[in-house]
């Protein structure tokens, strides 16, 4: 470590205390100590996140030639993505299905978050643990569970046939976009619930009493006080659920049919049977860009809504 | 004058909805254990008879036991590494005025949001570029990215929850930095460490997407389950295996969340 940052006087002082210069620097500079403690995590994340992302970005400009790559730095993959309709279809469909699942989840989860924030007074922690518990456990098994429920010979079909409500199994249940949207909504619900709950919990209760004292009824109070104050949570929950679900491929692979394939399935195929890694890299980059654009549009819409509401 | 507004009163409609919500959340998962005891080869109502033979069959499969061993090895190392890294990072973020604290925390928490397929694919690219063979080690590397945010999110409140003066007092009494850490810091944040170990272990143990892209010939349990899902005849055994995995994960996560939160609340109450 260089001594340039310290004056000779201070250095002499440090030396006089019998401390080596680096140790003295550490004791003096909090930020440096913090960065050294952070270093292992940041170095590991740098190696496993930043470097691979840079490589992925680079490879997206290459082309697959047989079993090898040509590092010809062309836009060929991106041009193909832009011109072949299959890519835009899959991308738009993934965005649409993720949006549908997110909307469904936010609507279903909001009353539950409201209940937890305003009507649960005892054992709140236990409620929160029980609600979040499934989301920590096997994603694969939670998706598989829906195959058990929705399957041709699944819980719903054989159950309904057993009671005699239907004679034939309902075919649209499994291997459809509906099945994927329902499964995604179920699998990611906690990601939408927690931020909404936190924003509702943070609302100052005296604001609610004030609005009641000023004569607002429960419905108007919800729309004019509670809902606007909880919007940051709703927006955060929307992002937390929308972004990962766009890239999901397990759900579509397990409960979706041919017309429910998502962009994630295509990316997976590029690294699997199709074996065109540069194209897979370009698709992954395109997906990130598309998510960013949609996210910014959503944020802009919300800001416009906020301005309009004032 | 104390008036009880109606938002303090129980709301019958919301209570009913809460029950409906919890049922919707848990019912699909509960069909896995239910049908794992069913005698039939197909998942269908009515259930004709009850049996334990799928569990018996499961235990005879050496491939399952090998996958279990692999999963435990990966999850165990990932839990230890991400918790140790998490303790250092959380301490740094809470205790020291680190430049760029916000962006650093955001970067560490990023994997919570980004689709895991992106990390899996990017890491696969790098690993093959460097000609590192796919193995349990590459799976573990991928899992550390995913587990580190959970470790830090669990540990941050622990460091925020206690007074730095306790560490300073120990230092003033002549303990060196290392001993202050072991004899003061670690005991105080111990519930956070245990919670982080339990939660990151479960996340890694159950993780599929990273393992799918970064796994070699050695399978983890989720990879084994994935392989069996293509075989309809194997469904009952998958259900039995799934039941055991779910039970194990639920217990670990419940303990993790309980230990992590309970200690934190106690610390806050003491103030």
List the helices and strands and how they pair.
The complex is a heterodimer of chains A (310) and B (271).
Chain A: H1 8-16, H2 21-28, H3 30-59, E1 63-65, E2 68-70, H4 76-83, H5 85-119, H6 124-136, H7 139-150, H8 155-163, H9 177-202, H10 205-213, H11 218-246, H12 250-255, H13 263-271, H14 277-309
Antiparallel strand pairs in A: 1-2
Chain B: H1 12-36, H2 53-60, H3 62-95, H4 101-109, H5 116-129, H6 136-160, H7 165-172, H8 177-206, H9 209-214, H10 221-228, H11 235-270
Helix pairs in contact in B: 1-11, 2-11, 3-6, 3-8, 5-6, 6-8, 7-8, 8-11
Main-sheet strand order of chain A equals 1-2
SS class of chain A: mainly alpha
* Biggest sheet overview of chain A: 2 strands, antiparallel
Q: What percent of the residues of chain B sit in helical stretches (DSSP H or I)?
A: over 70%
Averaged pLDDT of chain A: 87
Largest sheet of chain B, in brief, is: none
Shape of chain B: globular
For the record, what CATH class of chain B applies?
Mainly Alpha
Assigned CATH class of the largest domain in chain A: Mainly Alpha
Uncertain runs of chain B with pLDDT below 50, 5 residues or more?
Answer: 263-271
Biggest interface reads: A-B, 83 and 90 residues
* Sequence of secondary-structure elements of chain A: HHHEEHHHHHHHHHHH
Write a structural description:
The complex is a heterodimer of chains A (310) and B (271). Chain A folds into two domains: 8-53, no CATH class; 85-309, MetI-like (MetI-like fold). In chain A, 76% of the residues lie in helices and 2% in strands. Chain A has 14 helices and two strands. Chain A has a two-stranded antiparallel ribbon. With 271 residues, chain B is mainly alpha-helical. Helix content of chain B is 75%, strand content 0%. Chain B has helices at 12-36, 53-60, 62-95, 101-109, 116-129, 136-160, 165-172, 177-206, 209-214, 221-228, 235-270. The chains are: A mainly alpha (310), B mainly alpha (271). Chains A and B meet through helix 3, helix 5, helix 6, helix 7 and helix 8 of A and helix 1, helix 3, helix 4, helix 5 and helix 6 of B.
């Amino acid at each position: 470590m260089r001594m340039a940052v310290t004056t000779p006087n201070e250095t002499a002082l440090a030396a006089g205390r019998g401390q080596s210069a680096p140790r003295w620097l550490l004791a003096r500079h909090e930020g440096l100590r913090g960065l050294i403690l952070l270093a292992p995590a940041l170095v590991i994340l740098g190696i496993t996140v930043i470097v691979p992302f840079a490589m992925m970005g680079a490879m997206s400009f290459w082309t697959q030639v047989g079993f090898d790559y040509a590092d010809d730095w062309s836009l060929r993959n991106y041009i193909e993505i832009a011109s072949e309709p299959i890519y835009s279809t899959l991308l738009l469909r993934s965005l649409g299905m993720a949006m549908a699942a997110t909307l469904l989840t936010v609507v279903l989860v909001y009353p539950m978050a409201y209940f937890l924030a305003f009507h649960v007074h005892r054992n709140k922690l236990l409620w929160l643990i029980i609600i979040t518990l499934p989301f920590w456990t096997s994603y694969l098994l939670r998706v598989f569970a829906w195959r058990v429920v929705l399957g041709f010979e699944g819980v719903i079909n054989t159950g309904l046939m057993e009671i005699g409500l239907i004679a034939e199994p309902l075919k649209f249940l499994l291997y459809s976009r509906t099945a994927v949207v329902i499964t995604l909504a179920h699998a990611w619900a906690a990601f939408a619930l927690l931020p909404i709950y936190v924003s509702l919990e943070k609302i100052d209760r005296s604001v609610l009493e004030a609005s009641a004292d000023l004569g607002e009824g429960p419905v108007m109070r919800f729309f004019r006080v509670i809902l606007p104050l909880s919007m940051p949570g709703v927006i955060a929950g929307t992002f937390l659920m929308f972004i990962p679900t766009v890239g999901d491929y397990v759900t579509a692979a397990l409960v979706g049919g041919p017309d429910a394939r998502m962009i994630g399935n295509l990316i997976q195929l590029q690294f699997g049977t199709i074996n065109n890694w540069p194209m897979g890299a370009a698709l992954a980059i395109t997906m990130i860009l598309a998510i960013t654009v949609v996210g910014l549009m959503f944020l802009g819409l919300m800001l416009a809504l906020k301005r309009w509401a004032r | 004058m104390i008036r009880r507004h109606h938002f303090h009163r129980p709301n019958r409609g919301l209570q009913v909805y809460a029950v409906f919500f919890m049922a919707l959340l848990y019912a699909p998962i509960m069909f896995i254990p239910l049908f794992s005891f069913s005698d039939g080869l197909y998942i269908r109502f009515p259930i004709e008879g009850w049996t334990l033979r799928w569990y018996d069959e499961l235990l005879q499969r050496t491939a399952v036991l090998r996958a279990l061993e692999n999963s435990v090895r990966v999850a165990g190392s990932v839990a230890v590494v991400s918790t140790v890294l998490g303790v250092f990072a959380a301490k740094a973020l809470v205790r020291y005025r680190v430049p760029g604290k916000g962006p650093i925390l955001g970067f560490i928490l990023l994997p919570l949001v980004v689709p895991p397929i992106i990390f899996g694919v990017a890491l696969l690219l790098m690993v093959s570029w460097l000609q590192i063979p796919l193995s349990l080690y590459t799976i573990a590397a991928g899992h550390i990215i995913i587990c580190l945010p959970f470790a830090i999110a669990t540990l941050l409140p622990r460091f925020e929850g206690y007074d730095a003066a306790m560490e300073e007092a120990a230092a003033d009494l002549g303990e060196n930095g290392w001993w202050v850490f072991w004899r003061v810091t670690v005991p105080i944040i111990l519930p956070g460490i245990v919670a982080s170990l339990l939660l990151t272990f479960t996340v890694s143990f159950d993780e599929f997407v990273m393992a799918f892209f970064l796994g070699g010939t050695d399978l983890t349990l989720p990879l084994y389950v994935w392989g069996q899902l293509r075989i309809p005849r194997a469904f009952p055994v998958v259900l039995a295996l799934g039941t055991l995995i779910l039970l194990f994960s639920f217990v670990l996560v419940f303990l993790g969340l309980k230990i992590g939160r309970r200690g934190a609340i106690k610390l806050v109450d003491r103030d």
